[in-house]
Amino acid sequence: MLTRRTFCRQMAACSGIFVMQSTGTGKRRQVSVGGNRVRTIDFHAHCEFPGVREIMGGTTPANSPLIIGPERLQAMDAQGIDVEVLSINPFWYGVERDIAVKLIRTQNEKLSAFCSANPDRFVGLATIALQHPDLAAQQLEEGVRKMGLRGVSVGTEVGKEELAAPRFDPFWAKAEELGVPVFMHPQGVAELQPRLQGNGVLTNVIGNPLATTIALSHLIFEGTLDRFPRLKICAAHGGGYLPSYADRSDHGCLTFPQQCNKKLSKRPTEYLKQIYVDSLVFSSEALRHLIAVCGITQIVLGTDHPFPWTTTGIDHILGTSGLSDNDRRAILGGNAARLLNL
């Protein structure tokens, strides 16, 4: 039986995966807090691998910024990012089981091989075919136990189904059993597309955080987080809008009790203390609020790389007043290292 390390090395060799090396054209930024070097970990970074979309009849754009090349490492070095946690936004939730088996295996093997070849700079989150929950549970276990991936990434819905639907419980049970993080990333709210057209990229600016808000709220109110209390969910973009107006969630069932048919084990806002969120909230005031609502142990650095939402994710944390050195170390990398068991 192959060990995880042997498997990953063989996959890297067979796949022709290259080792990322600094080009020497730029100096790698060293981040320190209180005079001590900090290993920074970006929990929110995306990628894709050529040849995967083709399995479902699509094509991988040759110039896609998601295809990792030397410029990725140059950007990380300039920003001061030591490690990126790579995830792939799902584009396969509509495919049949047989195709899903081949697609996910290919994708996870490529991701595992790349991270194994570049272990000091990248770790990977497994992908799964969540539309087939029993298969998704198997794919997660294989990705973690066999391929050395450190967690799993999911969308905020599967077609028109919420992640809190009972049929997804086999996946949640496996994620809880393995004790690995589930990184949740939105792709807008399809039914709102007509209203979000026009200037301002509202499909993303409003749609993405709203999708996360809806998904997390259902996981709370439908009892998923009660059934699986040890889940380690990490939500992109600061958890969407939920932390910004969380107290309203506590009062909904008090105001309209006839519309609440499930009894939760605690107040809705208390679940935010067990959910992880990234730091992609753009202002110091927003970051301080996020910490107040979720807790300092629940915040991880996130940049959304290679999408240019921010190139100052490190300075966002270093420059936020009111944080202690320990707080900054925790957000910059300590929380992520603990979450990923690095």
Q: In angstroms, what separates the terminal alpha carbons?
A: 24 Å
Biggest sheet record: 5 strands, parallel
Query: Which residues sit in consecutive blocks of at least 5 with pLDDT less than 50?
Result: none
Rg measurement, Å: 20 Å
Helical residue percent band: 25-40%
The number of domains is 1
Number of helices: 12
Widest sheet: strand order? Answer: 6-9-10-11-12
Percent of residues in beta strands: 5-15%
Strand segment count: 12
Structure class? alpha/beta
> What is the CATH T-level topology?
TIM Barrel
What's the rounded overall pLDDT mean? 93
Query: Based on CA inertia axes, which overall geometry fits?
Result: globular
At the fourth level of CATH, the homologous superfamily is Metal-dependent hydrolases
Short recap of the structure:
The chain is built from twelve helices and twelve strands. It is of the alpha/beta class and 342 residues long. 39% of the residues lie in helices and 11% in strands.
Describe what you observe in this structure.
With 342 residues, the protein is an alpha/beta fold. The chain has a single domain, classed as Alpha-Beta Barrel (TIM Barrel), CATH 3.20.20.140. It has twelve helices and twelve strands. It has helices spanning 4-15, 70-79, 97-117, 133-146, 169-178, 202-205, 207-221, 224-227, 247-255, 284-294, 313-318, 325-340; strands at 32-33, 36-37, 41-46, 83-87, 122-124, 152-154, 157-158, 161-162, 181-184, 232-235, 276-278, 299-300. The strands form four sheets. The chain has a five-stranded parallel β-sheet with strand order 6-9-10-11-12. Strand 4, helix 3 and strand 5 (122-124) form a beta-alpha-beta unit. Helix 1 (4-15) packs across helix 3 (97-117) and helix 4 (133-146) packs parallel to helix 5. The radius of gyration is 20 Å and the shape is globular. The chain starts with a helix and ends with a helix. The model has no long low-confidence stretch (mean pLDDT 93).
